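ligand=KG4
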Amino acid sequence: MIVLGIESSCDESAAAVVEDGRTVLSSVVFSQVPLHQPYGGVVPEIASRSHVEKIGGVIRESVVQAFGGLEWGRIDAVAVTYGPGLASSLIVGLSAAKGLALALGKPLIGINHIEAHLYSVFLSPDAPDPRETGRVLGLAVSGGHTCWVDQPKIGDYRIIGQTLDDAAGEAFDKAAKLLGLGYPGGPAIDRVAKTVRSPDAIPFPKGRTKEGNPALGTLRADLCVSFSGLKTALMYYLRNNPPAGEEAVARIAASYQEAIVGALADRTARALELGDYSAVAVGGGVSLNGRLRARLREVTDRAGVRLLLAEPRYCGDNAAMIAGLAGMGAGVREGAMSLDVCPALEAGDRIEL
Ligand code: KG4
Ligand code: ZN
């Protein structure tokens, strides 16, 4: 089965063609980062306008790259992200996908963006078969999301832990702004932190949450994180200790990164103690972080489970993960033509149509 995937949930217009869920025939991503850079964050109005301009060309390009020409007839289904994300961005991709599915007379499949990030690890040729991997602990870490997901099998997801406020990527981006390191902040902090020898020199709060916090709902405190206090701690630290020069900035950035990464590694270790998992699958832009990769490697080695990481090109937003997950039989299939965008969708949510 050959699926054309479309993704427009935030600031990337992307399309990809994937065969049988695993073989990526093409993956085209138009990144809007330079458009949003002057504002230090994604501006929804600019994002949706850019999606409208670019999505058609990106889709055509993905078909040409896959087949060597505009061979629309070889596509068996059209898959698209319907949430979560910016409503005005999601609607561009969803409308394009509906139009295309109608025109081609092929089924439309609605895909959850977070579940797709968790699937992205299976796009590597050396990844195990997702249908034979057993119970997987998913960790989605991006600019908008941070959650731990129990995944007994592909297509079956339940959140067991999450951030109660800022996502990990958001915490990186806000800190980079305060430190004058630019946007997006994660890669900048990752880069300067590598130059620092003692990354835990400054004791920033470790993102802990307390049992009894109403924001936890039914979730356990030892599987959740809170990063808003960390950002405030950084603000106060900078006020009291203005950094003199690049080296001082790097030292602060490294300690700040260590607090985020430490929290993510700690909750992952705890989740592995509580469940019988065969692997940890990590997706989303923050999974590119070198220090996070190293800490998760330690955690999974200690627990004796496999660590599945996405290839760098599939860590950030892309459409191969959308088409891939759809090719595995997941997603909203019956009545998908009447799907609306779901900006606040969470992993495991089921949509009533
Ligand atoms: O998955 P993604 O491309 O988009 C969302 O769905 O949000 O993630 C973007 C986020 C940004 O916050 C960016 O700062 C962060 O991923 N990021 C990183 C790194 N590369 C990207 N964070 C930490 N270290 C990195 N190397
Ligand atoms: Zn994403």
